[in-house]
Amino acid sequence: MAEKISSDRIIYEDNHFIAVNKECGEIVQSDKTGDVPLIDKVKQFIKERDSKPGRVFLEVTHRIDRPVSGVVLFAKTSKGLSRINNLFQEGKIQKKYWAIVKNMPPKDSDTLVHYILRDSKKNKSYAYHRDVKGSKIARLEYELVGRTQNYYLLSINLITGRHHQIRAQLSKIGCPIRGDLKYGYPRSNPDGGINLHSRIFAFTHPISGDAIRIVADPPNDKLWEQFMLLGVDL
């Protein structure tokens, strides 16, 4: 039987969209690994739940990296897909992330502006303070919202959506994300993921006009629980 997601991972759904809380280690779309992508698991869930005899229409609207958890939004209709793509292009979607880092950031809050250069062969991006050939400007805002004895929690408003942007920019300021070996953290996490979580995805619904705010709980582990117990403000 084809693999599907469990219903408790669906965090938003209407006639045009469905949002899922992605787990660390899942791929959103097919890649060379041959692992079952999240989109196929969601299609199978819809097919069985709605008793659909034919092909289920479902398209990716955006992606988050394999080791990252949190909100992923899929389009269930072509109309929804084209409209949400327009919102992305117009910068009208708010994406907030949580990141756990070991090192205290230089400031409690700041706007980071770098030029991101992607190396496709290494599947890695590099952040520069100046414009270099082939780079794209990258912007994010961060705020220190929690701390434990050993770690700091940053809330990040992602303004542009470059390849590995948050990971590269935080590494550039000396704050690699916990578990992110690729960007300078000394150790991997037991689950192979990193402590970067797509927490909030908010937009004005392009068809109904309703204000949509999708929130995904972080993975169920002790470190995330410590920050949740602190009553971290969204």
TrEMBL record:
Provide the family line: Belongs to the pseudouridine synthase RluA family.
Q: Where are the transmembrane segments?
A: none
Which GO molecular function terms does the record list? Answer: catalytic activity, acting on RNA; pseudouridine synthase activity; RNA binding
Q: Which Pfam families match?
A: PseudoU_synth_2 (PF00849)
Residue span, Pseudouridine synthase RsuA/RluA-like domain: 16-171
This protein's superkingdom?
Bacteria
Give GO terms for biological process: pseudouridine synthesis; RNA processing
| InterPro entries (UniProt xref) | PsdUridine_synth_cat_dom_sf, PsdUridine_synth_RsuA/RluA, RluA_PseudoU_synthase
Q: Which UniProt keywords apply?
A: Isomerase
Question: Per its UniProt record, what Gene3D superfamilies does this chain match?
Answer: Pseudouridine synthase
| Name this polypeptide is given | RluA family pseudouridine synthase
